[in-house]
């Protein structure tokens, strides 16, 4: 390194000695800047720390006016220092004052210095401050000097993160590493939780940054990389992934990155600066994360997750840690923070201590969101860099209603949410008092309120809410949380348990709705350009009749002597229903022939989710025993708008005239044929949606368990005749006034209804 005294390894060794000295935080910082300046033959070395208010404060300097320490404060986008912080990238200039971002601060005396090298102080991709060296003479610092300063900045990052510098700050101007953070994502559940962070895949805590023997660290790194590559090869050759599928593609990407010479070269270079192998992995990954978090290309941001996972595996390999995190010892009021998660992983946690979930990935219709709702925990998805924002044990508020997440909240924010939770608890008690009251409108219209379910944890909600039964039991969830295909005996046990828990109340079992985005890990996955419109649900079941037959047989045996309702998903044409119903009849014949006791009554129906069925309603209603409108899928297909895509999901209002006309047509045709129709979906789970549906003529809903109380409270105060007349007039509106939401809201306010 040009002009350096002893090189980066000597600098790191001396830094370790300084870090171990029993001195104050300010003395330690002062010694560090002197040490860096001397090692790099720089006339100036300064440390700027990012504060909670978003500004940068000069915390220590060698060469500038020391009176400016803790007095010089600049915006995070001001000057060259601000540019380094904003871009999270080094800036190396031989004439700093000629740069358009240069900002003159007279109190520092830096106007006589021409050359400038600034590097961000990074941790988990987040900028905590800026480390700067300067010289009077014009010079461009070498790559080795840039590398050395970045490595030193990593040590400073841990010093800042430890909280050691907090004592030097004025109230309200503490280092940003512990600042309150507010981020917004996708609201997944109707719940709020206050608790403490538990990382689903805990970051490896590096305790030894500085190498005693660089060659030994290089050997450790080499062995760990080879072991990692061998593990990936072994996983790719295993029977589970050998045939292909999305999980194989992920592992193939990991293997490609693990063999990437550029990545390995960066790791080796970091070790050569004097870092331990695990610290080198942390350094390189933090730089990569900071750079890629600022990319707008979704493909590049997705690759960040791959690099994160790979680096995580390599660090655990180096330190001999098990890859699987322990989940059996959660703190009280645990909030799980993860990049992504499957439903089975969430169910592994102690449900008595689990209060919330924050995900970088996972939208409202993801499988893990369905399980989170079943567990009744607060959950927010699509939170950028969630795992990099919080440390284990941090206080956190998860607002599953609005999609807000507050990490390290202020006392005022915490107090406000405590009060919100109390209000919600009081409201739930009010809803609980309605549990045993019949669901009848003020003018005497009975409305059947059932719940959606899919797991054993859902079953107590029938009694808790006073629901009339289960209007939609998602049988695929049992398959999604299992490590292997559930045997017929396991399916039989679940269905029998569900019917027992219902206590004679109706249960509608929906046959497997898998395929598309619902991939079973033990089944071969076929690549499809548009999986939502692909080989899924009843299409898969009819093409694999053995799968559907085993499920139907388990349902029929579980319902021995009782009533059974079976419903098929994603039916697009009438003959698909005919074929599926014929399969049920053949299974009944099989059980009868073998002496099994049959259900007392079997009703067979279908979900109406595919718009094509709208033009076959009369033929369909002649055949089915009942109909369920799957409003979530029906509306996304009607508008060709993916409900999981944030850019288009809210582009069309479900309470618009076209939607109301479609839903009215369905219920009118069902009434004409004397067939019952239930609406399942988010529309029915919101009081304003239920209000519109009652006005259209719907008298049975299947809701989220948490929605039964609010919807029932609204119905008890509702004059159904009044809202029917209102909506009938609104449906004649020109389509330029498509949404009727405002009119319904005004009606509710006038009638004293709580929405």
Would you kindly provide a written description of the structure presented here, covering whatever features stand out?
With 755 residues, the chain is α/β, with parallel strands linked by helices. The chain has 27 helices and 22 strands. The longest helix is centred in the first third of the chain and has 24 residues, at 214-237. The protein is elongated, with a radius of gyration of 31 Å. Its EC number is 2.7.3.9. It is found in: Cytoplasm.
Q: Which tags fit this structure?
A:
755 residues; alpha/beta; 8-stranded mixed beta sheet; 44% helix; 16% strand; cytoplasm
SSE blueprint:
Blueprint: H1 7-20, H2 25-39, E1 44-50, E2 55-62, E3 73-75, H3 79-87, E4 91-93, E5 115-123, E6 126-135, H4 143-161, E7 181-184, E8 186-187, E9 192-199, H5 214-237, H6 239-242, H7 246-258, H8 261-272, H9 277-293, H10 298-319, E10 334-338, H11 343-347, E11 354-359, H12 367-375, E12 378-381, H13 386-389, E13 395-399, E14 404-407, H14 411-433, E15 448-453, H15 460-465, E16 470-474, H16 476-480, H17 488-502, E17 507-510, H18 537-543, H19 545-558, E18 563-568, H20 574-593, E19 601-608, H21 617-623, E20 626-630, H22 631-639, H23 657-672, E21 676-680, H24 687-696, E22 700-703, H25 708-716, H26 720-730, H27 741-751
Parallel strand pairs: 9-10, 10-11, 11-12, 15-16, 15-22, 16-17, 17-18, 18-19, 19-20, 20-21, 21-22
Antiparallel strand pairs: 1-2, 1-6, 2-3, 4-5, 5-6, 7-14, 8-12, 9-13, 13-14
Helix pairs in contact: 1-2, 1-4, 5-7, 5-8, 5-10, 7-10, 8-9, 9-10, 14-25, 17-19, 18-19, 19-20, 24-26
């Amino acid at each position: 390194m040009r002009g350096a005294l002893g090189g980066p390894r000597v600098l790191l060794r001396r830094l370790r000695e300084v870090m171990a000295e029993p001195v104050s935080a300010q003395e330690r910082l002062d010694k560090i800047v002197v040490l860096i300046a001397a090692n790099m033959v720089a006339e100036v070395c300064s440390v700027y720390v990012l504060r909670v208010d978003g500004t940068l404060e000069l915390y220590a300097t060698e060469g500038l006016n020391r009176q400016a320490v803790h007095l010089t404060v600049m915006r995070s986008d001001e000057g060259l220092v601000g540019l380094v912080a904003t871009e999270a990238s080094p800036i190396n200039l031989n004439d700093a004052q000629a740069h358009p971002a240069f900002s003159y601060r007279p109190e520092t005396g830096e106007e006589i210095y021409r050359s400038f090298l600034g590097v961000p102080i990074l941790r988990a991709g987040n900028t905590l401050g800026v480390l700067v060296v300067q010289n009077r003479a014009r010079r461009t610092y070498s790559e080795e000097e840039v590398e050395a300063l970045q490595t030193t900045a990593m040590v400073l990052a841990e010093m800042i993160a430890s909280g050691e510098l907090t004592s030097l700050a004025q109230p309200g101007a503490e280092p940003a590493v512990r600042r309150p953070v507010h981020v917004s994502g996708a609201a997944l559940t109707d719940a709020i939780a206050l608790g403490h962070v538990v990382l689903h895949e805990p970051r490896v805590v590096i305790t030894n940054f500085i190498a005693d023997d660089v060659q030994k660290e290089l050997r450790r790194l080499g062995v760990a990389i080879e072991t990692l590559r061998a593990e990936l090869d072994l996983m790719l050759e295993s029977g589970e992934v050998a045939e292909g599928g999305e999980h194989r593609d992920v592992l193939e990407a990991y293997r490609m990155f693990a063999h990437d010479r550029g990545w390995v070269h960066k790791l080796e270079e970091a070790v050569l600066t004097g870092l331990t192998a695990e610290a080198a992995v942390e350094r390189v990954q933090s730089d990569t994360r900071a750079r890629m978090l600022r990319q707008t290309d979704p493909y590049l941001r997705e690759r960040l997750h791959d690099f994160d996972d790979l680096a995580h595996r390599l660090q655990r390999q180096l330190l001999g840690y098990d890859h699987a995190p322990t989940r059996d010892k959660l703190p009280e009021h645990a909030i799980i923070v993860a990049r992504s998660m499957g439903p089975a992983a969430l169910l592994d946690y102690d449900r008595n201590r689990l209060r919330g979930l924050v995900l970088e990935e996972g939208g409202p219709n993801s499988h893990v969101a369905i399980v989170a709702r079943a567990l009744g925990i607060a959950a927010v998805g699509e939170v950028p860099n969630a795992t990099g924002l919080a440390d284990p044990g941090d206080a956190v508020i998860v607002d599953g209603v609005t999609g807000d997440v507050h990490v390290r909240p202020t006392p005022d924010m915490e107090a406000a949410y405590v009060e919100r939770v109390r209000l919600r608890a009081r409201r739930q008690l009010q809803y609980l008092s309605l549990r045993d009251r019949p669901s009848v409108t003020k003018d005497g219209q009975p409305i059947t309120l059932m719940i959606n379910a899919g797991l054993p944890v859902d079953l107590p909600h029938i009694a808790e809410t006073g629901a009339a039964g289960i209007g939609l039991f998602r049988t695929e969830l049992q398959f999604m949380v299992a490590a292997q295909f559930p045997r017929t005996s396991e399916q039989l046990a679940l269905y029998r348990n569900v019917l027992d828990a219902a206590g004679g109340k109706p249960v509608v079992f929906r046959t497997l709705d898998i395929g598309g985005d619902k991939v079973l890990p033990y089944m071969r996955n076929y690549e499809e350009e548009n999986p939502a419109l692909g080989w899924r649900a009843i299409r898969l079941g009819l093409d694999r009749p053995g799968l559907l037959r085993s499920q139907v047989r388990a349902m029929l045996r579980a319902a021995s002597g009782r009533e059974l309702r079976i419903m098929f998903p994603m039916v697009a044409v009438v003959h698909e229903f005919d074929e599926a119903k014929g399969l049920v009849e053949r299974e009944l014949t099989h059980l009868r022939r073998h002496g099994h006791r049959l259900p007392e009554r079997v009703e067979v129906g279908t979900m109406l989710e595919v718009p094509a069925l709208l033009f076959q309603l009369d033929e369909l209603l002649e055949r089915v025993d009942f109909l369920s409108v799957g409003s979530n899928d029906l509306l996304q297909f009607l508008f060709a708008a993916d409900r999981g895509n944030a850019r288009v999901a809210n582009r069309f209002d479900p309470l618009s005239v076209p939607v109301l006309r479609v839903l009215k047509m369905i219920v009118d045709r069902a009434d004409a044929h004397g067939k019952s129709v239930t609406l399942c979906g988010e529309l029915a789970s919101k009081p304003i949606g239920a209000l519109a549906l009652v006005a259209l003529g719907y008298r049975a809903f299947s809701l989220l368990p948490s929605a039964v109380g609010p919807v029932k409270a609204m119905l008890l105060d509702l004059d159904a005749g009044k809202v029917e007349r209102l909506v009938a007039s609104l449906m004649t509106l020109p389509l330029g006034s498509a949404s009727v939401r405002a009119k319904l809201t005004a009606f509710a306010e006038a009638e004293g209804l709580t929405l």
